[in-house]
Design a protein that fits this description.
Rossmann fold, Arc Repressor Mutant, subunit A, 3 domains, five-stranded parallel β-sheet, three-stranded antiparallel β-sheet, 17 helices, 11% strand
């Protein structure tokens, strides 16, 4: 007698650990980024050794070049090699639409407690008091800083952290920063005071991965994710080649995850080329390659969730823009996030259309591709993002 399908899929899973294919997983090794990791760590050697040094570094590279992984990796190394004396906080500014939310996340990661009811200055004061009392230092990675500035967000967070010593002179030399961005053009948008505060900062530029590099990274992650024999060597080449026009490594990992999931669903003991082809066909593509909802700001994600949920509920092809905005405000309320104004939301909708997430026609929104997988990713991201959003 055959086992029930769900049991069969568990018994015959091709995976050892599917989590190793997720975009936010930090592996033990970073193939083809060893040199950049070594250089980035070198900048923070004075911090590791206990010197009173405020180090600032730009980490610059396009989508899928490993900025976030490098930030998290070097943060863990610095914290570990300092014996825990250096604390590390990672903040994705795409989810922190005000300085309050960015500082609340630093406060949570450093002190382990929420910061509801405190102003950004009060949060920073708490952090500084802790650093001075413990004779500790802090390394903060500000990711997606260019997207944050491009959306017209307050520059206050970029001013406060480097000048924390003005709030507490004893904290001088205790806060270091990594600014991760796709380019350095965001610096041109800063006011003079903020630009002067950032000052002359070293920069590490990450070039795009070539085919051989993508192939090596895919092979390494596949070894972590799949059981021995579950993925043929030629499929690694196949996945890498397919992924090159769609963002390289990030798309390749998504493709592997989806192909493996299809293999499990069918009860197959291995991933086959047909699974890869089916997975490739099922993943929506945008104007610039594969859709990457992880790269969107919190408010764009909230808008997409509102749109997808409404189209699911109504079973219709189109959703009026005005209704999308009303539903977006409901999603924001659920997230405990203050919604953007209607004009800003419309600008986000137009940007989502340009990127290929949605289509616009005569004041109505449609979605060209199946969006269930994208919705699942967005819901997972928004669930995580709620930690950024305690209201003051």
């Amino acid at each position: 007698m055959l086992a029930p399908p769900d049991l069969l899929r568990v018994v015959h899973s091709v995976f050892i650990d599917r989590e190793t294919l997720l975009h936010d997983y930090v592996p033990a090794k970073l193939p083809h980024r060893e040199r950049e990791l070594k250089r980035l760590k070198h900048y923070f050697e004075p911090v590791i050794s206990g010197e009173a040094a405020s180090v600032k570094v730009h980490l610059v590279g396009g989508v899928g070049t490993g900025k976030t992984l490098l930030c998290r990796k070097v943060g863990g190394i610095v914290a570990r090699e300092s014996g825990g004396r250096v604390k590390f906080a990672y903040v994705n500014l795409a989810y922190a639409h005000r300085p309050y939310h960015a500082m609340a996340e630093v406060h949570r990661q450093v002190l382990g407690v929420p910061a509801a009811g405190l102003s950004p200055e009060e949060m920073l004061r708490n952090i500084l008091d802790y650093l001075v009392a413990e004779d500790a230092s802090l390394l903060v990675a500000l990711d997606e800083v260019d997207a944050y500035i491009a959306e017209g967000r307050s520059q206050r967070i970029l001013y406060m952290l480097p000048r924390a010593y003005e709030l507490e002179p004893k904290a001088a030399g205790r806060i270091s920063l990594i600014y991760a961005s796709r380019s350095l053009d965001w610096l041109k948008r800063l006011d003079e005071a903020t630009l002067d505060t950032i000052g002359r900062t070293s920069a590490i530029h990450l070039s795009a991965y070539g085919f051989e590099q993508v192939r090596d990274i895919v092979a390494y992650r596949a070894e972590l994710a799949f059981k021995p024999g579950a993925l043929d060597e030629e499929l690694i080449d196949f996945v890498a080649q397919i992924s090159m026009p769609y963002g390289g490594v990030r798309y390749a990992l998504e493709l592997l995850l989806e192909a493996g999931t299809l293999a499990d669903y069918e009860g197959s003991k291995s991933v086959r080329a047909g699974h890869v082809r089916s997975a490739h066909a099922s993943i929506p593509k945008g104007a610039n390659g594969a859709l990457c909802p992880e790269e969107l700001s919190l408010h764009k994600q909230a808008l997409l969730k509102a749109i997808y949920d409404a189209l699911n509920a109504y079973g219709s092809a189109y959703l009026p823009v005005e209704e999308a905005y009303s539903l977006y405000k409901v999603v924001c309320e659920q997230l405990n996030v203050e919604p953007e104004g209607e004009e800003e939301a419309r600008a986000h909708i137009e940007a989502l259309s340009r990127d290929g997430y949605i289509m616009l026609r005569a004041g109505a929104i449609a979605v060209e591709y199946p969006y269930e997988r994208t919705l699942q990713i967005i819901e997972r991201l928004l669930k995580k993002a709620k930690i950024y959003e305690p209201k003051p």
